[in-house]
Amino acid sequence: MSYAKQSVRYVENDVLSRPAEWMVPLLYEHLLASLSRAAVQMESGDAEGKAASLSRATDIVLELNASLDHEKGGELAGQLASLYSYFALEIMNVGRTLDGKVLQRLISLVAELHEAWVMAAEQVAPRSRPAPQLRVANA
Q1: pLDDT of residue 47
Q2: How far apart are CA 30 and CA 129, in angstroms?
Q3: Across all residues in the chain, what is the average pLDDT?
Q4: Distance between CA atoms of 22 and 52, rounded to whole angstroms?
Q5: If we measure between CA atoms, which residue out of 88, 86, 68 comes closest to residue 77?
Q6: Structural domains of the chain ordered from first start
Q7: What is the 3-state secondary structure (H, E, C) of the chain?
Q8: Which residue has the higher pLDDT, 134 or 36?
Q9: Measured distance CA(133)–CA(135) in Å, rounded
């Protein structure tokens, strides 16, 4: 089996094995990876790679926006929709201007939000339980 097929199978298994609460953090992980990849590609002058990475990042932001439930989410969903619109605009601007500082600021913001989503998901559907404490009797 080729590396590409193994990689696709790994990602599929990762997605399918996660509880629903972990889908948004997963999308943020992929968004961060795409933005970080674009930063490296911009530095190395890989215009085609940068364009592909920023396009992928935009697709993820659009997916995050489409996943919002405005009925249940109320004001928070509206605020996230505005934030995702901002992300999409900034990604487009970075693609046009190649402004690495703007991209780094966007990466930092997405990383903070990813951390918040992970903490929220951990509250609802913990990934793992802490290891039991081992008690050693005094001799």
Answers
A1: 95
A2: 25
A3: 85
A4: 25
A5: 68
A6: 21-124 (1.20.120.340)
A7: CCHHHHHHHHHHHHHHHCCHHHHHHHHHHHHHHHHHHHHHHHHHCCHHHHHHHHHHHHHHHHHHHHCCCHHHHHHHHHHHHHHHHHHHHHHHHHHHHCCHHHHHHHHHHHHHHHHHHHHHHHHHCCCCCCCCCCCCCCC
A8: 36
A9: 6
